[in-house]
Amino acid sequence: MAHALALGRRGLGRVWPNPAVGCVIAWDGRVVGRGWTGDGGTPHAETRALAQAGHAARGATAYVSLEPCAHDGRTPPCADALIEAGLARVVVPLEDPDGRVAGRGIERLREAGITVDVGLLAGAARDAHAGFLLRVTEGRPLVTLKVAVTLDGRIATATGESRWITGKEARRVSHALRMSHDAVMVGAGTVRIDDPDLTVRGMGVVRQPVRIVVGGSQSIPPQCRLLENVEDAGPVWLAHGQGASEGALPWKFVGADLVPVPASEGQVDVACLMQELGARGLTRVLCEGGGALAASLLSAGLVDRLVVFSAGKVLGAEGTPSVGALGIRQLANAPEFELTEQRRVGSDLMHVWRRDNSD
Questions:
Q1: How many Cβ atoms sit within 10 Å of the Cβ of residue 86?
Q2: Is 217's pLDDT higher than 60?
Q3: How far apart, in whole angstroms, are the C-alpha atoms of residue 257 and residue 205?
Q4: Cβ distance 272 to 129 under 8 Å?
Q5: In Å, how far from its chain's centre is CA 208?
Q6: Are 352 and 305 in contact (CB under 8 A)?
Q7: Residue 67 falls in the annotated catalytic set
């Protein structure tokens, strides 16, 4: 099952709106087939593993990192494929909460006489499928907030200079983070100041993430790097207030997809935005700045993962803070996160935090 989960993770950022599933078929202690969800969601992991296993699948055990589907979509039901292949046993960590599945795949396998075990490495599977599960159960994608900061929590100098706070090793890990998410999101201020292209580079990637800019459409020139080659560099979505459609039109003319959402006092409602992104199929969104957008997401309780790269530099109080004002007057009201990983990346430190849901 651990191997199936690892295989599934290969599809993160490449298979939305589908889950990134892995499948391992074993017979008498020997792996005879393995697979993971293909780019764009097809073929499914079970189909690829069965094709590799061939006749060796008969009487074998399939370890699938999420309940096999039981509905007709772009592919026939995977539960039926496992039955037709003559599997003796199927092991899954979780039921798929999608209403089209929701236990039906397991039921169909058992009705066909296949032994089905549920619950193996369930915690690891929930973590691996967190984005898909959130989209199905809450209608929104998982949000990872990534920041590269100095020791005193600054992301730029007083003049806006930020390249580069961290070293090349940390930047490479950041590109791997982009690769494992369906979309990369920044605020309008980041586009104006840094003019990023938000693509994955140096990783051999074919399928680029969606690039999302939030708010401020009137003040961003459509000549920015994001729009230089939308077809090859990946789609661009501009999330803007519903009353700012006219200012967003130049972006539409050069290839961006407009995402109108409610706004108040010039600020996009990020909770509504996340619901819209979930409705469009996104399961995992990486937010890379800036401070105002980070503050909005944190205030709304929408940051599920926090990845912090810390560099051995100090900029002082005049530097730009990594997070804008949150209006917190008591520690008890501060967003809390649980440390899940820490390691050295080149000359920098990387900390990974998960939202504390203990309450």
A1: 13
A2: no
A3: 22
A4: no
A5: 13
A6: yes
A7: no
Contacts of 113 (CB under 8 A, 6+ apart): none
* Bridging pattern class, strands 210-214 and 183-187: parallel
What whole-number distance in Å separates Cα of residue 59 and Cα of residue 33?
Answer: 13
Task: Name the one residue in this structure whose structure tokens are 């599977």.
Answer: 125
> Cis link prior to 43 (omega < 30° from 0)?
yes
Residue 167 per-residue DSSP state: -
CA 148 – CA 112 distance, rounded (Å): 53
For the chain, how many residues are written? 359
Residues in CB range of 357: below 8 A, 6 or more apart: none
Give the tens place of pLDDT for each residue, 38-77. Answer: 999 989 999 999 999 999 999 999 999 999 998 777 778 9
Cβ burial 70-82 (10 Å sphere, 16+ → b, else e): beeeebebbbbbb
Instruction: Name the pTM for this structure.
Output: 0.92
- Strand 284-287 relative to strand 142-149: parallel, antiparallel, unpaired? parallel
- Give the H or E element holding residue 266: none
Other CB atoms within 10 A of residue 208 CB:
19
Alpha-carbon gap, residue 157 to 85, rounded angstroms: 61
**Which of helix, strand or coil describes residue 78?**
helix
Mean of pLDDT values over 10-18 = 94
The residues, any chain, with a CB within 8 Å of residue 11's CB and separated by 6 or more, are 20, 21, 22, 36, 37, 38, 39
User: Which helix (H) or strand (E) element contains residue 317?
Assistant: none
DSSP 41: G
In DSSP terms, 237 is beta-bridged to 212, 257
Taking alpha carbons only, the member of 189, 230, 190 closest to residue 211 is 230
The one-letter code for the residue type at 225 is R
- CB atoms under 10 Å from CB of 238, counted, come to 28
Residue with tokens 């009487």: 59
Strand partners, 338: 354
b/e burial code for range 321-331 (CB count within 10 A of at least 16 → b): bbbbeeeeeee
Structure tokens at 345: 């990346």
The DSSP bridge partners found for residue 64 are: 23
The active-site residue, picked from 46, 67, 276, 288, is 46
